[in-house]
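Components:
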Amino acid sequence: MATHAAFMPGTEAKSHGVLWSWITTVDHKRIGILYGTSAFFFFLVGGVEALIMRLQLARPDSTLVGPQAYNELFTMHGTTMVFLAIMPLSASFFNYMIPLMIGARDVAFPRLNALSYWIFLAGALFLNASWLFGVAPDAGWFGYANLTSRQFSPTASIDFWVLGLQILGISSLMAGFNFIVTIINMRAPGMTLMRMPLFVWMSFVTQFLLVLAFPAITVGLILLMFDRFFGTLFYAPAGGGDPLLWQHLFWIFGHPEVYILILPAMGIVSEVLPTFARKPLFGAPVVIYSGIMIGFFGFGVWSHHMFSVGLGPVADSAFSIATMLIAVPTGVKIFNWIGTLWGGTVRFKTPLFFALGFIAMFTMGGLSGIMHASPPVDLQQTDTYFVVAHFHYVLFGGSIFGLFAGIYYWWPKITGRLLDERLGKWHFWLMMLGFNATFFPQHYLGLIGMPRRIYTYAPDLGWYFWNLVSTIGAFVIAVSILVFMVNVVRTQRSGPTAGDDPWDARTLEWSIPSPPPVYNFARVPTVHDRDPFWLQKHGDGHGGKPAGRPAPASAAEIKAIHMPPPSYWPILLGAAFLFMMSGALISIYQVVLGGLLTLYCMFRFALEYHRPPSGGGH
Amino acid sequence: MTSHAASHVEHDPNIGITGLDHRKMGMWAFLGSECMFFGSLIGTYLSYKGKSLSGPTPHEILNIPLTSVSAFVLLMSSVLMVLALAAVQRNDMKWAKVWLFSTAMFGAGFVGFQIFEFTHFVNLGLTLRTNLFGSTFFTLTGFHGAHVTGGVIWLLALWALALRGKLGPQDALKVELCGLYWHFVDIVWIAIFTLVYLIP
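Structure:
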């Protein structure tokens, strides 16, 4: 499945053009860029959905959108931001950075990696196609049964949602298998598990969460699909079914999903802080153990999303205690990050601003999280704007700030050009201001009784002022994102080039050119420390001499590097699969035909290198 | 890719730093995920056990002797799978073809039993829509049957490669991956057979 024929950079572009080279690419860096740009596009889509909602709520009795459109907007906003923005933005960093940080030339299964991306794109387009047919999903991002039954949702809206999420789940599962194997099996010589960079570690935990949590929602969605298409009784109370089954299956997935969204950002912050404080991550092994513990406990707290169901005092107590316990490793990490800055030679660059923003905002989200870990408190807060404020503090204040730290940090590595610091800081301060103006008042709105998911409110409820503030804040966030886009466009045209190592950083990806050559490492490095590149440049800080940079590879060595050739089977397999899945909404014949095409593409994919033309033995 | 650029020793690019093959490790990760998949389906079955509002109920309708025979057929196919892999590894392609084909046929036999069972139940008035037992039973055993069917297609593909002389000892790992999957599907059936059929 890996390297069989010699393939050198640029050869494919000469023969077939640039577009073809991107369509058939199996290079983890290009796939990372594809993930990143697609995710940013859907981040904008989800953002526009949010802005329309905020405009609607800016004043009482507003008629900008009706209740049905509002339901569609909040459903698609949540689904888009979780599955089409934050997850693929994280995946973009997994793809681009993990092989570079562990000293590998690609992932373990390059074509499977391309397939993951194309199936992700298929799912994203499928889900959003519902807008074109005027039947966008409208049952909320966690689609509670039996609102989603055929009886209460007779149109195809929920079908788009169910099938779209199944497609996206398959993409995530394949990526999960790929990165588990890549991280275990493709580390450079000497890189023991405990020498792996923190971002790789947090991503590693995330892959296990993906692989073990997605089957639960897959089953939940299959049962829902069967209820809707075949008339089974899984969530139908009239037939003895229990809508709570959906809640359990959804949240057994849904809570680990929260950590799938936050752990990669925690990993990014754990890379950015040591670089800009110019000292190693404080207590790095403890941060690693904490990440593992968060992943482990993440599977034992799902019912805290269901306190208002009335599961009984024993279940409530157990899940409440587990939820409070999970705050411990999270708190440990926060202290480790602060400890990293303490006594460091701190350089206040944009990535560090976002990392610090992450720590502050995520801590606030964590604190309100501990509040509703307590069932009696949760009963007051559930389904109010307090909860909306809470999860935006962890997912926007946490994940998005962390991901922007990663974008500013690794941008020069990926593009070879630095982003502008002045615009970067404008972006940061506008986003910080806009974010807090948007979401902090929502704590208060929730506590004075404003429920989530209402499309308007009466003027005499006293909610007008803070809703207006929240809407203004949302537009400030939008301006900050515009500043970021201006920054990208301007610096790509005429920005200063970055060089290999603009931040005087610590890990392997900075030891190679920016942007990296297609083979990444001319010579596979040997690793002796968690900060191998720092060791080469500056020594261990205890009087040990710098190890020095290894001699550059000769032209003959570089010529001998074998890289996997491009393949068009990933995109064809993805297209066949999309054709099959969309058949569920059109005709059984399309499902059968699509299934046969998918099977055919699977065989061609599997046998592409079964007997390599070069006559190699594997 | 992991091979050193300057190395002249031919190095299998699928073997990683742990000495394990990427594909085998990926297969184990996939099977771990499958455990959660069948765990969720079995959990659903058990949580709805005895909650049907109307009949037929499991032990009015389940035929344990017949299913014991089909379970035996499936378990024996695992033995044949072991023989197939051993034959491929020692480059005995004549017997490899025999064992691969008979593994697939035993698997197909199991699926045949299942089709007969499903048809019989439908004739007795139990469908996906009849009651919770029907919904959970057909979904759980149906997904298992679909996994067996996928395995049969995989085995037949390997058999077809062998017939065309395109399978040899250097492909033993590909047969082993299919074997891992096949044994996993068997083990899942042991769990389903015990929990659904044997325990009253």
